[in-house]
Design goal:
The complex is a heterodimer of chains A (318) and B (146). Chain A contains ten helices and eleven strands. By secondary structure, chain A is of the alpha+beta class. In chain A, the strands form two sheets. In chain A, strands 3-4-2-1-5 form a five-stranded mixed sheet. In chain A, strands 6-7-8-10-11 form a five-stranded mixed sheet. In chain A, helix 4 runs antiparallel to helix 5. The longest helix of chain A has 49 residues. Chain A is elongated. Chain B is of the alpha+beta class. Helix content of chain B is 27%, strand content 29%. In chain B, strands 1-2-3-5-6 form a five-stranded mixed sheet, sandwiched between helices. Chain B is globular, with a radius of gyration of 16 Å. The chains are: A alpha+beta (318), B alpha+beta (146). Chains A and B meet through strand 9, helix 9, strand 10 and strand 11 of A and strand 4, helix 4, strand 5 and strand 6 of B. Strand 11 of chain A pairs antiparallel with strand 6 of chain B, so a sheet runs across the interface. Chain A: Its EC number is 4.6.1.16.
Chain lengths: 318, 146
């Protein structure tokens, strides 16, 4: 399937042990084709204070990252190692890109300098004309009105030029009063680009910077449900490992609260009663499951789907 | 070979609860597999009980949808099905492996309909003689619409 699909692999950034996807196209692709919607964790630039509606990136569960890696539709990159290494080992194409960035930077610096100089000259001119006006006013009582009429016209000219140029310089001039008043032009004017796409073009496999995924013990159950087309969301709100939806969570209520166990792990019956009772109250089944171990595993090794066994628990209402 | 005494006692507690409190009929205790020769009787992993509840206990959500379409929901109560019961005590622990063994030992009287899983009733007993019943399905079975 992947061979007929020319879509590039989804890039998962591993940063501080969190698995993040930043590309909105990837997010839509995962939701449409791999029943993974995950959780938006980014604050929104327009409203960074609020925490109810989040934006990109999405944070994948470790299980989701691992499933995507196993399906060969994504790769995980350790961002803290990746960026410095990538920039150090820049190829000719990357150099070209970096040159463009540097060009933008020097352009910005130049125009900033020009603006500062123009303003300096303007203020100097304006100050001079004002002084001249004051001096003229003292002497104007007896003199002809010619000088007085000339002086205001110069003043008006300076005013219009001030208003014309004011919106042009970047916000930095208003944020930094020292710049407008200061003598020297700002030293470092670095261009911050909105995307670093051009630096992120590795081909998976030959890249030694791929990071590993640390999956929890409940991973086999997750992979089993994911394989069957269910959508999983974090299970905190129903006290389990995963909330399992039969389709997109925007369209369906969840069917199960799922908790993974080891094949020989002791399960307290009270936990089972608690899960079953809660599930019934919220119209769900309590699903437990895990990877089959021992003799059974050898029997099923050819068929990976049989590797996991799950049981659904419901209150019997009697 | 037989089960330890406490398991037999547990089974009889649940048996009496089903008979006296829930009015089940056709009750039967099982300790050995039915379809084995008498001399090589295989012990079940745990004692089990079968019986017929007075009303239908479980209706698969797909069947429920069908019945709602044909306005025949009232017929369900009158057609109870034989259920398997697994007695357990609240202080016991169990593993997925044990649950799988119990399901594998279940001999159903007739083959299952397509797409359906085995199910049993887990009867959980506590010392104050409370018995609670939970359905356990062998597989991923969607919840009932209630």
């Amino acid at each position: 399937m992947t061979s007929s699909n020319p879509r590039p692999h989804v890039r998962i950034s591993k940063a501080a042990n969190r698995y993040l996807v930043f590309d909105i196209d990837d997010v839509m692709y995962l939701r449409r084709n791999h029943n993974i919607c995950s959780v938006f964790v980014g604050t929104m630039p327009q409203a960074p204070q609020q925490s109810a509606f989040m934006g990109l990136p999405i944070e994948l569960m470790a299980e989701e990252a691992q499933v995507l890696v196993e399906k060969k539709v994504a790769y995980v990159v350790d961002d803290s190692n990746y960026h410095p290494a990538r920039i150090a080992a820049a190829g000719p194409q990357d150099r070209q890109y970096l040159d463009v960035v540097k060009g933008i930077t020097s352009d910005a610096q130049r125009s900033m300098r020009e603006i500062t100089e123009a303003r300096k000259a303007m203020f100097a001119h304006k100050g001079a004309s004002k002084k001249k006006e004051r001096r003229d006013k003292k002497a104007s009582d007896a003199q002809s009105s010619e000088d007085v009429t000339v002086a205001p016209s110069v003043d008006a000219e300076a005013d219009t030029s001030l208003f014309d140029t004011a919106p042009e310089p970047s916000p930095a001039t208003t944020k930094n009063p020292s710049v407008t008043r200061g003598e020297a032009a700002p030293e470092a004017w670095l261009a911050t680009l909105t995307t670093s796409d051009a630096l992120l073009t590795p081909s998976p496999g030959q890249n030694e910077l791929l990071a590993s995924v640390d999956v929890p013990a409940s991973y086999p159950l997750y992979a089993h449900l994911q394989d069957k087309g269910y959508f999983m969301m974090p299970g905190l709100r129903f006290g389990c490992d995963y909330n399992v939806y039969p389709g997109d969570p925007l369209r369906f209520h969840s069917h199960f609260q799922a908790t993974g166990f080891q094949w020989n792990e002791d399960i307290k019956l009270l936990d089972l009663v608690t899960g079953g009772r809660l599930g019934t109250n919220v119209k769900k089944s309590f699903l437990i499951g895990g990877r089959v171990e021992g003799e059974e595993q050898q029997r099923d090794e050819t068929d990976k789907a049989l590797d996991v066994r799950a049981f659904s628990i419901e209150w019997a209402a009697m | 070979m037989a089960h330890p005494d406490y398991l037999a006692d547990l089974a009889s507690t649940v048996y009496e609860n089903l008979e006296s409190q829930h009015d089940w009929t056709l009750l039967e205790s099982h300790t050995h597999k039915k379809q084995s020769l008498p001399e090589t009787k295989t012990l079940l992993p745990r004692p089990l009980i079968t019986g017929l509840p007075p009303r239908r206990l479980y209706l698969h959500p797909d069947d429920q949808v069908e019945l709602v379409k044909t306005h025949a929901t009232y017929t369900v109560d009158e057609t109870p099905e034989i259920e398997w019961v697994l007695p357990m005590h609240l202080n016991e622990k169990f593993t997925l492996k044990q649950m799988a063994e119990v399901f594998d030992s279940l001999e159903l009287p007739e083959p299952l309909a397509e797409g359906r899983c085995k199910r049993l009733l887990m009867a959980i007993v506590h010392d104050d003689s409370t018995v609670v019943y939970y359905f356990v399905h062998d597989g991923i079975v969607k919840p009932r619409q209630n």
